[in-house]
TrEMBL record:
Pfam families associated with the record: DUF5690
Protein name (Swiss-Prot/TrEMBL): MFS transporter
Keywords, comma-separated and alphabetical: Membrane, Transmembrane, Transmembrane helix
TM region positions: 33-53, 65-86, 107-124, 130-151, 163-184, 196-218, 239-263, 283-306, 313-332, 338-359, 379-397, 409-434
Protein origin, superkingdom: Bacteria
Organism lineage: Bacteria, Pseudomonadati, Planctomycetota, Planctomycetia, Pirellulales
């Protein structure tokens, strides 16, 4: 028996550890397509609602308020991002070791802590309320990994996670629109974030309950995508060090894209002000993200049709390259005055979200399937996310320490040029590494598993 053949054999131990559903008849007799739709709706809804506890405060400008020499808005963004970053580092252990039956309760507990932090934000005077957003970020940073655990290791994982990732593209703009609308309704800036969160408590509970009902992967899923199991500390670092060079380049690429995404997201009001010459209306945050979400969903979800995991892995790297190229095209068109501000924001958004979502939906998922390594997607994602948010904090602090002159838009465009160029270098290096390291496709025909 070859090594590949051994990988394809699903043992009772694998099934038990991975929480595998029986091949025929899972929790119910519902067909696969039903659970695929159910899973997308549940994951999309859960993470969309989570954003209502995280992002609405960025719709406020907190004009003329200063904290330690920086604007209150910048201090709030940095405080929340610091908490979010720390949560990602903690999540490397917590998400990798989390038993499946505790995920749903963990999501609800974390979001309720985040809402408590938003209430503190309204109660405490400035600048003391800055610390409450640190607690908010600390609690929300592990929600994505818990939701992702319900979707990974399935034949339809790319489509499911593409739907999940569409949620944070749309939610980013729409929850800002909710925040901006609440401000128009005369809700005070300090209380606007907690009021926005309250609007989404009931939908959140419903969607999390739906997540908890999703059956685990069945034997066909395990045969094609490898068993996804909890990981000890030794398991985690043995996996990473076996592919250290290639994975590190992917983490750096993700770091650079995360920096661009965070600046574009957290300082959207300032960017739109520079682009339009006036304060943006609430609807523009949502309108700009509709086009981005549609393009990203189609590009990243389509990989589910590629059965060969090695080929799908390199297709995902190609999608990353296409997104980075699109950013360069947008920057060049802006310099030549060929596009307006709205088109610039959409093109850069599409260009950065293509690789950002590809990492979430395909790159690490297909890496595990391609190599047949025993582990889980949450570990790899949280290694990348922790480093990504560390870079985001560095850029936010550096902008103020360096006292960059000119408009915020000029600063953003400069970061786009630098980050995109470096990301392309990392992408080329990782492509070469994995093409040399993993040469044999490990394709499994699911029908053969049932014989």
């Amino acid at each position: 028996m070859t090594a590949v053949d051994r990988d394809l054999k699903i043992t009772p131990a694998d099934a038990s550890v991975a929480g595998v559903a029986p091949l025929s008849g899972s929790r119910t007799n519902m067909p696969d397509w039903f659970w695929q739709i159910w899973s997308v709706v549940a994951a999309f809804g859960t993470y969309f609602c989570m954003y209502a506890f995280r992002k609405p405060f960025t719709a406020a400008t907190f004009e003329d308020a200063m904290v330690a020499g920086v604007t209150l808005k910048t201090a709030l963004v940095i405080s929340q991002t610091l908490g979010y970053m720390l949560s990602k580092f903690i999540g490397i252990k917590v998400i990798a070791e989390m038993p499946p039956h505790r995920r749903a309760g963990g999501i609800l507990l974390l979001v309720m802590i985040a809402q408590f932090a938003l209430v503190l934000f309204g109660l405490l005077p400035s600048p003391w309320n800055v610390g409450s957003l640190f607690l908010n970020g600390l609690s929300l940073g592990m929600v994505f990994g818990l939701v992702l655990g319900f979707l990974e290791g399935r034949r339809s994982t790319e489509a499911l996670t593409a739907g999940l990732c569409t949620s944070f593209i749309l939610a980013d703009g729409m929850t800002k629109s909710v925040g901006a609308w609440l401000l128009i309704q005369k809700v005070p800036e300090p209380w606007m974030p907690s009021v926005a969160g309250l609007l989404f408590v009931v939908p959140l509970v419903i969607f999390v309950a739906m997540l908890a009902m999703i059956p685990p992967p069945n034997q066909r899923d395990i045969a094609e995508r490898a068993a996804r199991v909890t990981m000890s500390s030794n398991d985690r670092w043995q996996l990473y060090f076996r592919y250290m060079f290639g994975l590190t380049l992917l983490v750096i690429l993700y770091l650079l894209i995360s920096i661009l995404r965070s600046i574009r997201s957290d300082f959207a009001p300032e960017l739109w002000l520079d682009l339009l010459g006036k304060k943006a209306v609430p609807a523009i945050y949502s309108q700009s993200e509709y086009c981005v979400a549609l393009g990203v969903l189609l590009a990243n979800g389509s990989a589910v049709f590629v059965r060969d995991s090695r080929r799908a892995f390199f297709i995902s790297l190609g999608i990353c390259g296409a997104g980075l190229g699109l950013i360069l095209v947008a920057l060049l068109c802006r310099q030549a005055a060929m596009i307006d501000g709205f088109t610039l924001m959409v093109l850069i958004g599409l260009g950065l979200y293509l690789p950002y979502v590809a990492v979430h939906t395909k790159v690490f998922e297909r890496f595990l399937a391609m190599t047949r390594e025993r582990g889980n997607l949450g570990f790899l994602m949280y290694v990348a996310d922790s480093i990504g948010y560390l870079g985001v904090v560095g850029v936010l602090l550096g902008k103020n320490l360096l006292n960059i002159e000119g408009s915020f838009l000029n600063f953003f465009l400069l970061v786009c040029w630098i980050a995109t160029g470096l990301a392309l270098c990392c992408l080329a290096g990782s492509w070469r590494y994995f093409s040399d390291r993993v040469r044999e496709p490990k394709l499994v025909v699911a029908a053969e598993v049932t014989r």
